[in-house]
Amino acid sequence: MSKVIQGLSKKERKKLIKEIYSKINIEFGDIEEKIKEASPLYEYWESDGSKSTLDTFLIKEHRFKEDADKYVRRDPSKCENYWRENMSIIWKKEKAAEYGVTDVFDDIKGGREWITTIIKWFNTKTKIRVLQLVIDNNLLQLETLTRFKMSVYNACDSLKDEDGFKLAQLCMDTDIETLTSILNKEVESNATNEEKSIKDHIREDERLKLKEIIDIGDPFYLYRGLLVDEDQYIRMGKKDEGSDYWKQNAGKGLSYSLSEDVAGYFCYWNLTWDEKGVFRDDNYSRLIELPPPTITKEEYIKYEGEIISNRIDKVGKKPIVCKFLCDPKLIKGYSFTLGEGEVNLYPEHLAVIRYEIVSGYKIGEYVWNKLQRDKEFIWDMNFTFNPNGIAALSVDTPDGGKEVIFADGKKVNERIKEYKDNLLKGDKQSHKGILEAQLPDIWKEFSVEMPDNMDPVLLTKELYWILTNPYKIEPKFKQGSVIRRSYQAIQNYMYR
């Protein structure tokens, strides 16, 4: 049909498409009520309509609770309208694609992004009901449904109870052919020559890596960070007990990572938040006394490691990073949205290759490495102060813009070292506020010039390497100046 439409004149094509949508609108009459019933708010509208009843359907976990209160609790009717509108758009546009209409995929994507955002705001039981009705009533076609399942799973922080298990079973009901098709389209759509931030660069690399793994078909490695009780064992059996030696016993789950750093980060996550997503304690490291742009990698790992070690003792569980071998044909889902290189499989489909009980300081290093993966702009260069190269400072301006200053890290460090040492010692005569107030002047005094062709705001791989100086190259400095970007310029970066 698409070839037929393409062969028509503009007038004939417009007429045919109009006829197609007229037919779709008639067919939609049978679907409209099903979309209404699949709304996450359907049972609320059937109830007494009180706020206390509404609260029973909303998410309780930390990550999306604030948004749920803001976008659902204040005005549930608005949320309902967005759900129905976007589900209707998806259904009609997917039906139009069946008839050969081609300019529908941006609308389908936009609608899918809306419904995946909305479903995040509701509890696990509501997610199960919605997803089951969407499946039973064929409200989404296979590829969109698979994307929706992956998004629902990755947006749920309550997967360890009975409802979480049911939701995971629904979300993992996928096939590798559809997943491969989606992945290939994502790789193609992200293949541009535009400069990318560290964050985007790593996500794209891992997306390409997964595509290559699936295309080749050979077994590959994944990692998982977990907490287990002192008397629990990772392996099902001993080395002389045959296949059980390779099977996982404690700490099972469905989420694994292509990155060992991410796996280690989840040891930190599980030590910091409990199974309900509640913060375990409010203890902070001594780094809270320092301005983030002045903190080095070594300082971050040392002082965060102390706090993490204390949490390990309090929680009473062993933090473990485990390496697995798995078959790419058995992959059930993936996600690169949060920079976690996540791949989903059933634990019985993996072999335990090795595992390590990790210390608080090792976890601190994993966390620092994970933070680097998420850096996008120059103002994200916290905890990365380089006393042996070039140091960056970003300062907010009254008009909403930014001032960016690059400076000789060695000279800056000589100026601020005594302040930092006193603050870390808890010296009450030294005040963090005084140091922060002086930072722009110190950076300006020792400012250096950067290459003319380098974007000073977007944290590209090249700029990151210059700032972190991993090869200990002695930089040649030339007096620089403050780089200013307006509010509008900053907005253009943020929403590019």
Strand content: 5-15%
Secondary-structure-derived class: mainly alpha
Task: Please provide the count of β strands.
Answer: 9
Global geometry? globular
Extract low-pLDDT stretches. none
In which order are the strands of the major sheet placed?
1-3-6
Number of helices: 20
Could you give a short account of the major beta sheet? 3 strands, antiparallel
Number of domains: 3
Order of helices and strands: HHHHHHHHHHHHHEEHHEEEEHEEHHHEH
Radius of gyration: 26 Å
Percent of residues in helices comes to 40-55%
| Terminal-residue CA separation | 36 Å
Mean pLDDT: 90
General description of the model:
The model has no long low-confidence stretch (mean pLDDT 90). Helix content is 50%, strand content 11%. It has 3 domains: 2-173, no CATH class; 185-373, no CATH class; 378-494, no CATH class. β4 and β5 (342-344) form a beta hairpin. By secondary structure, it is mainly α. α17 runs antiparallel to α18. The protein has a 3-stranded antiparallel beta sheet with strand order 1-3-6. Strands 2-5-4 form a 3-stranded antiparallel beta sheet. A 3-stranded antiparallel beta sheet has the order 7-8-9, with helices on both faces.
Can you describe this structure in just a few lines?
This protein is mainly α and 496 residues long.
Characteristic terms for this protein:
three-stranded antiparallel beta sheet, 3 domains, mainly alpha, 20 helices, 496 residues, single chain
